[in-house]
From TrEMBL:
<dbReference type="GO" id="GO:0005874">
    <property type="term" value="C:microtubule"/>
</dbReference>
<dbReference type="InterPro" id="IPR007259">
    <property type="entry name" value="GCP"/>
</dbReference>
<dbReference type="GO" id="GO:0031122">
    <property type="term" value="P:cytoplasmic microtubule organization"/>
</dbReference>
<dbReference type="Pfam" id="PF04130">
    <property type="entry name" value="GCP_C_terminal"/>
</dbReference>
<dbReference type="GO" id="GO:0051011">
    <property type="term" value="F:microtubule minus-end binding"/>
</dbReference>
<comment type="function">
    <text>Component of the gamma-tubulin ring complex (gTuRC) which mediates microtubule nucleation.</text>
</comment>
<dbReference type="InterPro" id="IPR042241">
    <property type="entry name" value="GCP_C_sf"/>
</dbReference>
<dbReference type="GO" id="GO:0051321">
    <property type="term" value="P:meiotic cell cycle"/>
</dbReference>
<dbReference type="GO" id="GO:0000278">
    <property type="term" value="P:mitotic cell cycle"/>
</dbReference>
<dbReference type="InterPro" id="IPR040457">
    <property type="entry name" value="GCP_C"/>
</dbReference>
<dbReference type="GO" id="GO:0000930">
    <property type="term" value="C:gamma-tubulin complex"/>
</dbReference>
<dbReference type="GO" id="GO:0043015">
    <property type="term" value="F:gamma-tubulin binding"/>
</dbReference>
<keyword id="KW-0206">Cytoskeleton</keyword>
<protein>
    <recommendedName>
        <fullName>Gamma-tubulin complex component</fullName>
    </recommendedName>
</protein>
<keyword id="KW-0963">Cytoplasm</keyword>
<keyword id="KW-0493">Microtubule</keyword>
<dbReference type="GO" id="GO:0051225">
    <property type="term" value="P:spindle assembly"/>
</dbReference>
Length: 156
């Protein structure tokens, strides 16, 4: 939900502000059309629905990560509602380990893509996304590169 809220506030608000400024300064119909097209293009890029292949790859990874979060939630629900039998607990632990590995790999891949994109252009919304994903540098190695966390984490 936080991701959706961030998208709504930061994407639409910033795009709308630029749109209003552009419309206020437009003096011809062509300028109005250009401002409107730039507005739509900005929203599409920032919501990862632009037709560019790289934006589609970013969107795909974000959707995969959100899907893995839902998978994690479902397994945790199973554990919390009667997953005390040894066989159920063992199956759930194996599923969690697999989800964790996939999640870490997807996040690191996404961070690498986003970092590449940030190195070749100015995309403030991507910089914000990288900060939100890697807030405490959890996926950062000592050398400054992105890395998946080795080994499973301890679960309570």
């Amino acid at each position: 939900m936080h991701f959706i809220s961030m998208s709504w506030i930061e994407v639409y608000h910033s795009a709308w502000t630029k749109f209003c400024d552009g419309m206020a300064s437009a003096t011809t119909l062509d300028e109005v059309m250009e401002v409107h097209e730039a507005y739509l293009s900005s929203i599409q890029r920032q919501c990862f629905v632009a037709s560019d292949k790289l934006w589609a790859l970013i969107a795909s990874r974000v959707k995969t990560i959100l899907g893995l979060a839902l998978d994690f939630h479902n397994v945790e629900q199973t554990l919390g509602t009667g997953g005390t039998a040894a066989s159920v607990r063992a199956r759930c632990e194996m599923e969690l380990d697999g989800i964790e590995k996939q999640f870490d790999e997807c996040v690191v891949f996404l961070l690498r893509i986003l970092s590449f994109k940030l190195n070749v252009g100015h995309f403030p919304h991507l910089a914000d996304l990288v900060t939100r994903i890697n807030y405490n540098h959890y996926y950062m190695s000592d050398t400054g590169s992105f890395t998946a966390i080795p080994g499973p984490r301890t679960r309570q």
